[in-house]
């Protein structure tokens, strides 16, 4: 296996960061292909916690090459902050590559994200206000700024001469009393370009050459399948293609090059932002997941909405990503619950729905139909250590029944079971097959 794509199967925050870091041990390259610093990927090494928004989760393994692909939207200020922070914590940045074609999040994108969220009323997704949507809109409308533009004063100035008056008009029409200064933006972004210049490269060439040499390349998805701009809960998702196909577009590789697609499934569901959420729990069980799972946004600190695992969502993810394998995360969080429910299908106006609907009005009215399973007890850290060491068979019987249920509903095998945030808290089933 040389090209492996890791994607979230739900609404993000499935634990992709931890899982990417885990797989990265064997990889030569770790590549981000979409999204921007709306992502928040947490990795624990020993008792140290790292949170990344833009840097690929392979960055802690400093001998690996990490790539920010053309499909990512880059806020250069955030990226430089992230690099400074990680250097301060003792990690060398030796092998970072940023696509020359990646689009740049400009100051007006962040301002417009905030303003439009306020105006959007019922359409608002509860964005991270990082300028993601407006930056992708400009990319598609063909007046974006790309990484390569930051490397040349003349090019950037020419672009800003056209762009700043347009964006100023937009702000004026919106009735905002904000004045954009071309000179300030030009200076700040050229300075960023100067600092990032050594990392900017033709990353499609780099990755294709690596694949020719049979290097292992890991493509790290951000967000999740149901936040995808085309396949997610429109208009409450994000602005990029989060599904596995996005890895081709977002890095410049052909679809035949992908060997394997892995879907990360959190053992329950969470959502940060607005929109319908059929299995959402507004009770002590939801509270239990939020508190035990630490379900507070990595990027914005917002409490995440929590609910039971929804197999309608996961089956959809199996289909649109053509998942070869699943990774189950955070199953430890459910320990201590007496009964655990899994949504099998929805009921809508006395009809059964098995396939995730496109219509948000329908989704909002869907009642989940549940299977109910018995829970399992608490385990101490030492007991988890023992179970991880012994492997899958040592897991509590009811947990294995829960996992069997997921297998049956999806028809997809599992590769890893994650039972805690640290690297060692992982049951690796790859040797079992
Ligand atoms: P991502 O956006 O998909 O990378 O996920 P986040 O990092 O936003 O959220 C996942 C959170 O759960 C992080 O705080 C992780 O450290 C933590 N985590 C990951 N896997 C596990 C697990 O198996 N069990 C527990 N208890 N926590 C986990
Ligand atoms: P990771 O990679 C969870 C959600 C926002 C909002 C919608 C649009 O950590 O899984 P945006 O700022 O992208 O325009 O917001 O998408 N969202 C996420 N939710 N995890 C994420 O990333 C997310 N990135 C965006 O809350 O509803
Ligand atoms: Mg996250």
Description:
The structure is a single chain. The chain is an alpha/beta fold. It folds into two domains: 3-89 and 203-428, Adenylosuccinate Synthetase, Chain A, domain 1 (3-Layer(aba) Sandwich), CATH 3.40.440; 103-198, Adenylosuccinate Synthetase, subunit A, domain 2 (Orthogonal Bundle), CATH 1.10.300.10. It has helices at residues 16-24, 76-88, 107-119, 132-141, 153-173, 182-196, 203-212, 246-249, 284-292, 311-321, 360-365, 381-390, 397-410, and strands at residues 3-8, 29-32, 41-45, 48-52, 65-68, 73-74, 96-99, 103-104, 200-201, 217-220, 260-266, 269-271, 305-307, 309-310, 325-329, 339-348, 351-353, 367-374, 414-418, 426-428. A ten-stranded mixed β-sheet has the order 9-7-5-2-10-1-11-15-19-20, with helices on both faces. Strand 19 (414-418) and strand 20 (426-428) form a beta hairpin. Helix 3 crosses helix 4. The two termini are 15 Å apart. 6-O-phosphoryl inosine monophosphate (IMO) binds next to helix 4. The site of 6-O-phosphoryl inosine monophosphate has 26 residues, from helix 4.
């Amino acid at each position: 296996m040389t090209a492996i794509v890791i994607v979230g199967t739900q609404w993000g925050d499935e634990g992709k960061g931890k899982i990417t870091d885990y797989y990265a041990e064997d990889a030569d390259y770790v590549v981000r292909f979409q999204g921007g610093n709306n992502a928040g990927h947490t990795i624990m090494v020993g008792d140290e916690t790292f949170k990344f928004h833009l840097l690929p989760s392979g960055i802690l393994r400093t001998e690996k090459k990490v790539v920010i692909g053309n499909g990512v939207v880059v806020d250069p200020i955030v990226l430089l902050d992230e690099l400074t922070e990680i250097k301060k914590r003792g990690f060398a940045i030796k092998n970072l590559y940023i696509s020359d074609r990646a689009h740049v999040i400009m100051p007006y994108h962040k301002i417009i994200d905030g303003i439009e969220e306020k105006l959007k009323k019922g359409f608002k997704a509860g964005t991270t206000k990082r300028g993601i949507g407006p930056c992708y809109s400009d990319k598609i409308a063909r007046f974006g700024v790309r990484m390569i533009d930051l490397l040349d004063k003349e090019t950037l100035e020419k672009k800003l001469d056209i762009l700043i008056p347009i964006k100023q008009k937009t702000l004026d029409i919106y009735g905002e009393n904000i004045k954009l200064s071309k000179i300030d933006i030009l200076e700040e972004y050229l300075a960023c370009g100067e600092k990032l210049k050594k990392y900017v490269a033709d990353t499609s060439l780099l990755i294709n050459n690596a694949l020719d040499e049979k290097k292992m390349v890991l493509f790290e998805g951000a967000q999740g399948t149901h936040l995808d701009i085309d396949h997610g809960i429109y208009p409450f998702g994000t602005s990029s293609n989060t599904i596995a196909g996005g890895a081709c577009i977002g890095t410049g590789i052909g679809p035949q090059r992908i060997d394997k697609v892995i879907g990360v499934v959190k053992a329950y569901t969470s959502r940060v932002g607005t929109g319908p959420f059929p299995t959402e729990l507004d009770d002590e069980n939801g509270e239990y997941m939020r508190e035990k799972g630490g379900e507070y946004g990595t990027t914005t600190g917002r409490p995440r909405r929590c609910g039971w695992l929804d197999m309608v969502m996961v089956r959809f993810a199996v289909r649109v990503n053509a998942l070869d394998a699943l990774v189950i995360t955070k199953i430890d969080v459910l320990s201590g619950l007496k009964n655990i429910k899994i949504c099998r299908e929805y009921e809508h106006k006395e009809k059964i729905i098995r396939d995730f609907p496109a219509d948000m009005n329908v989704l909002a009215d869907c009642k989940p139909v549940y299977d109910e399973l018995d829970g399992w007890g608490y385990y101490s850290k030492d007991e988890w250590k023992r179970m991880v060491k012994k492997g899958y068979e040592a897991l509590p019987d009811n947990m294995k029944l829960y996992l069997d249920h997921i297998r049956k509903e999806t028809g997809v095998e599992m590769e890893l079971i994650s039972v805690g945030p640290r690297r060692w808290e992982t049951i690796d089933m790859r040797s079992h097959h």
